[in-house]
Design goal:
Blueprint: H1 2-18, H2 46-55, H3 59-64, H4 67-105, H5 115-123, H6 127-138, H7 158-197, E1 215-223, E2 229-237
Antiparallel strand pairs: 1-2
Helix pairs in contact: 2-7, 4-7
Amino acid sequence: MKKFIIILFAIFVLSQASLGQARENPFGGSREIWQEETPSERPPSKWTAAGLSLLVPGAGQMYLGNTSTAKYFFAGEGAIWGAFAGYRILGNWRKEQYRNFAAIHAGIRPEGKDDEFFEDLLYFYSRDQFNYWMHLIYRGNVPLYPETDEFFWEWKTSSAMDEYADLRSSSEKAYRSARTMLGVALVNRVISVVDVFRTDVHSLGDDAIGDSGELIPQAYLGQSSDGTPSFGLRVVKNF
């Protein structure tokens, strides 16, 4: 009789499990019902997206699934760093040019000279002229250049001196433009982070590409009439 009751109880438990019916918790007084639940998926974190956008503008948008907006930030970031590299290369090239030019037309020895030395070449026709005026004005409070071949210079013509000034100005302008690109890169990151927080992640599906007609803020890079870079903010419409 005891074995028969055990068999009936086992059959009852198996039948309830096979039908997938909920049953009460047999291990306590709780009336909670056991059910298999599929855990709800949490939306992607905007803070994580913001961190990604600080590293690479557009990465946060890509993480949120807004690939249409991400491509604008990726394109802008590529253009900014491409311009930075280009200006640095141009600045180095012009720097080599004006140093070699001064060696030919002023007789300097460019090796080991600091930037202050090359700046003095802009305003003084020769080393002796520099030493004369510095001594006359500052009365020994400013160090003078030693009267040796190592620090000698004397421009052959005033036109050569002017051409040197143009070459050096071109180099310095390129370096300033490269530094400007670093500022533009920072602005692009700020815009990308702001865009992350204004994105409605609940409206983006798994294959979301952004809403048609969406207005997207973007940093732009241009060039003024004198060749210096200009940048600012503009709004791009997503189609």
